[in-house]
Amino acid sequence: MGLQRFAIFTNPKIEDVLESEVQRVLHAHAHKTEVRPDIEGLVIVEVEDVPAVCDMLCAIRSAHYVMRLTAILDLPQTTDAVQALVRHIMEDPVNRLPDISKAEFFRVRCTRLGLHSFRSHDVEREVGEAAHEYHKIPAKMRGATTILRVDVIGDKVVLGVQIHGEELSKRLHPEFIRDASIRPNVAFAMLHLAGYGEGEVLMDPFVGSGTIALEAAVRFPNNKIIGIDRSDRVVKGARANAETLGLTNVELTTANARNLKSVVARSSVDCIVTNPPWGIRIGKNEEMEDLYRGFLASATEVLKIGGRIACLLVRWEAFLHHCRSSGRWVVKMARPIRTGELNPVLFIVERVEDTMWNNIKRDIFVLVGDARKGDGVTTLESFKKQQVAVADGAASGEKEEAGNGHEVEGEEAVEGEGAMRPRRRFSQ
Ligand SMILES: C[S@@+](CC[C@H](N)C(=O)[O-])C[C@H]1O[C@@H](n2cnc3c(N)ncnc32)[C@H](O)[C@@H]1O
Fold first, then answer.
1. Where does the THUMP domain start and stop, copy by copy (predicted)?
2. Exposure pattern of 23-39 as b/e (b: 16+ CB <10 Å)?
3. What backbone phi and psi angles, to 5 degrees, belong to 190?
4. How many angstroms separate the first and last alpha carbons of the chain?
5. Architecture of 3-170 per CATH?
6. Above pLDDT 90, what percent of the chain?
7. Per residue in 364-379, pLDDT tens?
8. Probe ligand 1: pick from 11, 176, 206, max atoms within 8 Å of CB?
9. What pLDDT is recorded for position 30?
10. ipTM greater than cut 0.95
């Protein structure tokens, strides 16, 4: 049984998510996986060429598309780069031109990332003409099931034959898609990075065409998934997508993301995964800030303690500011994900115990105790007085003693049954 190399593309900066899914899905069949640091978005897998392998690869949800890999070439650094590339391919067509000899029709697709003096369309046209000349097979723009790929990523060119028709990441929008929709493979990565799992209630308060909610509903058919959008038209479109896909575990409702309590009970949601409006074309800074502040305040009410928000944002400063200043959130991750020409940042924040507690903790000390259990803390003023007493105790060398005996590192809140004691000086 021979080995075959496949090139799998996703959005740049989530290659690690793709690689781990490839390893899980292909399991023992994958001999080697490789993330190429010089080619953004690419994972290469060397795999046993068994019949089921293509089906397994097409089931990978963090992939945009998969190709049987023919060659990786350097892009000629000349003014006629596309023509020079075609000449280079045709010097050794057996090893460089993807094999489409059995196709009835074909078309060439090019994804281009980086700064170049040509367009994707130029590559598609020039390589298409050369392949047609060589294989004597007609090209067809619509309906061709054989897709020869020539992807230009920076100064590298990846050549191969796509092993499926439509892009895998077009799977969730059979009826309706918005301009602002993200791809399902990005939705998969957001859910994965948020640690969303079996049995958890998920909410997307800016659901749009439903990408994130539908992706979660496919993966976790027994979970409860709630999608909200303020537009009736959009909610109808997302419902149509869910119905066509036969998904029955998604509730889609018209509502405002600033008032999530109108849809779900307090502390009933485990995870919010969403991409709110980015305010690229419209939306003043203040409007976006106001929206993010309102959404975070509302999320605070419906999310359980320990629950997470995964939020993909372009103008993220206001979101981060509100997270930090409220004291209710701990930032777990900030990771840019390339989507088209933009680099939005995926924030993952976790809902932590108590506002007053965390604000004060940030100022001076982490204290042992739990305000909710009535450890003598009722108001901000009384809490501050205790701080002074505690600080005095620390200065005089009073011994630390945690109620539950757990050592706590860094910024984590300290929980326990014991009296409030100074644990660790804080700097932020
Ligand atoms: C960027 S789109 C979401 C796209 C979605 N993730 C998808 O893949 O289709 C943002 C959505 O938020 C909705 N929206 C804007 N403000 C809102 C608000 N205050 N409450 C609820 N939805 C809102 C818009 O109608 C829009 O559909």
1. 54-163
2. eebbeebbeebeebeeb
3. -65, -45
4. 58
5. 2-Layer Sandwich (3.30)
6. 68
7. 433 344 434 443 333 3
8. 206
9. 82
10. yes
Instruction: Decide whether any atom of ligand 1 lies within 6 Å of the 259 Cβ.
Output: no
* Structure confidence at residue 417 (pLDDT): 28
Alpha-carbon radius of gyration of the chain = 26
Q: 130: which 2 tokens? A: 């050369």
Tokens of residue 179, six digits: 């301009």
Residue pLDDT, tens place only, 66-120: 999 999 999 999 999 999 999 999 999 999 999 998 899 999 999 999 999 999 9
> Among all chains, which residue has been given the structure tokens 């303690």?
305
Q: How confident is the model at residue 206 (pLDDT cuts 50, 70, 90)?
A: very high
Please state the domain extents for the chain: 3-170, 184-352, 362-425
- The answer regarding whether domain 184-352 maps to CATH 3.40.50.150 reads yes
Counting beta carbons within 10 angstroms of the beta carbon of residue 251, is it exposed (0 to 12), middle (13 to 18) or buried (19 or more)? middle
The yes-or-no verdict on residue 155 having pLDDT over 60 is yes
Answer yes or no: is the C-beta of 230 below 6 A from any ligand 1 atom.
Answer: yes
